[in-house]
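May I ask you to comment on the folded chain given beneath this request?
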Amino acid sequence: MTLPGTNEYRLAHLRERLAGDEIAELGVRIEMRGSTVLLHGTVSTSACRDEILRIAEEALRGLPVRADLVVADATAPDHPEDLA
């Protein structure tokens, strides 16, 4: 049985870990959708995404987690933009 407010505490703790740990990721939003936790936003690298998922799994053990994390593409374009 989960006590009222426990999941909110766990989500807040996860937010603090993502902001304060060596990952320092502030662009990920964490929401409770029914009984599932949704992580969504844009991250800088796939390694960063993997670390966020590892931390979330550890912090939210026992809760279903759905991740919609997009890796930003920071590569230079290979052709000029056509504005015509």
